[in-house]
Amino acid sequence: MRLETLAVHAGGAPDPETGALSPPIHLATTFRHGPAGERQAGYEYVREGNPTQTRLETALAALEGGPAALAFGSGMAAATALLETLPSGSELLIPRDCYAGLRILATEFLPERGIRTRAVDMTDTAAVERALGPDVALVWLETPSNPGLEVTDIAAVAKAARAADALVACDNTFATPALQNPLALGADVVLHSTTKYLGGHSDVMGGALVFAEQGARYDRVAHRRHITGGVLSPFNAWLTLRGLRSLPARMAWNCTTARAVAEFLAGHPAIAAVHYPGLATHPGHATARAQMRDFGAMMSLRPRGGRDGALAVAARLQLITNATSLGGCESTIEHRASVEGAHPVSPPDLLRLSIGLEHAEDLIADLRQALDSQA
Ligand code: PLP
């Protein structure tokens, strides 16, 4: 089945009891069992799993082309559950440009468990090869990356990591399974913040891991989720499932709009740089073209005038909202350095833009009025 069909039908069999096409939300926290704990329909307690979550996990696994998925209460809960299974004394490689929360988890929290982290330029496979060594247990990819839109050659890095006995996890939040399938390119695990495009409406938080194998690693992470409790709620599973039914259709529109916006920005005199993998001038354009079906709807722009110039543009926007997060119906923009905590790493002049479902001409008109007085 093709992606669009899978998105609509995976995990979507009509309710066997009523025939309802929209799946029931099973809010039950506990499920009847036999006197010696014998399960009757596979479930016992909601922290371990529930039928609505199972439907979502089935759908996510189908979309990413893996045998099994685990849903979590947030993207960060999913990342934590996976990274905490790395052995003490091991090393983690993360991209030099990546989501700030992941960097904080890796550099502040994981060292407490004896796991060291090194940031690497993942756009340079030779640099990754040099960084790989006997202690490296996992290479974390995020492509395109947040907020710099850097593109990693997933297949090349996965090959190098495999040769060095390291696992590869890939954050696929920006691309979504509508545009890119890291497991097919050699990654071992895919991470999603389903809070973004998969939910798609800025109203539900969640995260997920999709595994290339349903083996010991999956079991360890599932056990960890069960015991530490980072599981997704049934209602949030239901909302996310509803969101991903329309994912391919939304992404197709998003990408068309994003391309038009990126081209407009690239030609505007008040813009010093636009980072969007769909532009032929982007250093990762050829790799993105080879491993993605389209280029996504995230970009970052660097208005002239440094930090003050960027903040002035953000302040003048009227339709595009200054807000964190991404992947919703509404376009949002954010000066990342202002929200990255005590040690911001994003360039001071960088604005991250999430293109929503509005019409390209309205978004361009808003950006034009904000930029024209800058030029
Ligand atoms: N990965 C990326 C690329 C993100 O942008 C985010 C959040 O912004 C996360 C992971 C973390 O996801 P969550 O906010 O659902 O915990």
Shape, principal axes of CA atoms:
globular
Uncertain runs are none
Q: How is the largest sheet built, in terms of strand order?
A: 1-7-6-5-4-2-3
As for the CATH topology of the largest domain, it is Aspartate Aminotransferase, domain 2
> Hey, roughly how much beta strand do the residues contain?
15-25%
Mean pLDDT level: 97
Residues in helix, %: 25-40%
Q: Given the helix and strand composition, which structural class is it?
A: alpha/beta
The helix/strand order is HHEHEHEHEHEEEHHHEHEHEEEH
Q: Main β-sheet: number of strands, strand sense, barrel status?
A: 7 strands, mixed
- Going by CATH, what is the homologous superfamily of the largest domain? Type I PLP-dependent aspartate aminotransferase-like (Major domain)
Q: Please tell me the CATH architecture of the largest domain by its name.
A: 3-Layer(aba) Sandwich
Q: What Rg is obtained from the alpha carbons, in whole angstroms?
A: 21 Å
- Ligand set: pyridoxal-5'-phosphate
Number of helical segments with 4 or more residues: 12
| Beginning-to-end CA distance, first to last residue | 49 Å
| Strand elements, count | 12
**Count of discrete domains:** 2
By CATH reckoning, the class of the largest domain would read Alpha Beta
